Every structure is written in structure tokens, then in C-alpha cells.
User: What shape does this take?
Amino acid sequence: MIRKKVMVFGVFDGLHAGHHEFLHQAKQCGNYLIAIVTPDNVVQELKGKRPKLTIAERFEHLKDIDHVDAVVVGDNVLGSWYVLDLHRPKVIALGYDQIRLKDELERYFKNADWQADIKLMHAHEGDKYHSSILKDVKKPIQ
Assistant: This one.
């Protein structure tokens, strides 16, 4: 069977129902889902603060989700795209709120020697399940 790799990017700092729905939707775009976990230093650079959970904890929580086939730590340098070039997914599934990342990926692919389809997933109660709202999430939802 030919793998249709799908890649997602995120901090995943305490998994909630919105993350689970996002990952489920992403998996439906192919048959092999790779979750890229943003390193702490990049989270600091993007959000001005470090994640509550360690990268090891975030990695482990994602590994426990059935429809995630591989978990990979993302690039330590923002915008380097090494992890993207290494895995070359057919589809990059983005959360409904990852518009800035979508724009950056589109700029990247203008000069790349390969292409991936970039798809925005639908929000799952975005006004309820969004990491910026759920600041006290400590454990993954099972």
C-alpha cells in the first residue's frame, strides 16, 4: 500500500477535544499522520512564553493517540523547514487558526522543488476548545 503522508504542526500543550478532532480530520486526508511538535525555543519565539508541558510530555501525549502514526520534534530554527523536506508529506493539514503558518508554507512552496497540498481543517467548537482559552489544561483528554 502506498502511504499518503499527512503532516500537522502544533505546540500540543495539553491535548483537548479540539486537538483530537483536528488530528482526526487530518488523518482523513491520507493514511499516515505525522504530528510535528514545536520545540520550546520556537514556542517562546512565536508566543512569547514557553509551553506548560515539557516537549517530552507533549510528545508522549501525541504518541498515545490512535490515529497519529508518527510524532516528530520540529525544527529548532523557525522557518528552516528541515522537518518538512525530510518527510515530504503529500498533505499538510492545518488548524482553522493557523493562517500565519499557511501563509509561510505557501511562500516556502513557491521556491521548493516539490509541493504539498495545504488544507485547513474545520474548527471543533473553536470558541470552546482553543488552547488560548483552555489555559489550565494539564492532562490529555482520553
Q: What stands out?
A: Residues 128-142 have pLDDT under 50 and may be disordered. Helices lie at 17-27, 40-47, 55-63, 82-87, 99-110. The longest helix spans residues 99-110.
